[in-house]
Amino acid sequence: MRRGIDQNSFPESQLAPIICTKRNIAKEQPKALIFDLMGTCCDWHSSIVPAIASCPTAPSLSSEDYSNLAIDWREGFFEEIHHRFQTGEPAEDIDVTHRRVLDRLLQERGVDSQTWDDEVRDKLVQQWHNQIGI
Question: Hey, which of 46, 109, 123, 126 has its CA 20 to 30 A from 132?
Fold first, then answer.
C-alpha cells in the first residue's frame, strides 16, 4: 500500500462538506467544486523527474534514483500535511512543506547545499506548480 493520506482516517463529519451526491446537488447549488490535481489531472511524476534530472550532478545520487526521490518527495509531502492535520497544527504554504521534505530527503541521500543550493532547490519546488496535464 502506498503511503499518504488515507481518506478513511478523517472523521466523516470533516468529509461531509465536500462529498456531493445526486440527492444533495439537486437540493442546493454547489458553492465550490473541489478536485484533486496532483495525480488525477496532472502527471506529477513525468513533471518532477525531468526537473530533478536537470539539476547539477550529485555524486551520491544516480539517474536511477530520480524516480524514487520524486516518489518519496510526494509521499513525504502528504505525510507532512497529514501529520499537521492530525496534530492540529495550522496549514502552511505547500511550497514550505515541499521544501522541508526535499531538504530532508536530500540530506538523507548525501546531497548537500553546496551541490544543490537554494536556487536549485527552489526551482524544484516550483516545478510542483508546472505539471503536465493528463
Answer: 109
Q: Whole-angstrom Cα distance, residue 18 to residue 21?
A: 10
List of E strands, 1-131: 42-43
pTM: predicted TM-score of the whole model, two decimal places:
0.73
Least confident of 30-34, 65-69, 91-95, 125-129: 30-34
Which residues, including other chains, have CB under 8 Å from residue 80's CB and lie 6 or more apart? 97, 100, 101
- From 7, 12, 11, 9, select the one nearest 36 (Cα to Cα): 7
SS3 15: helix
Q: How far, CA to CA in Å, does 33 sit from each of 5, 12, 20, 112? A: 20, 19, 9, 41
Grid cell locating 119: 536556487
Strands 42-43 and 132-133 turn out to be antiparallel
C-alpha cell at 134: 493528463
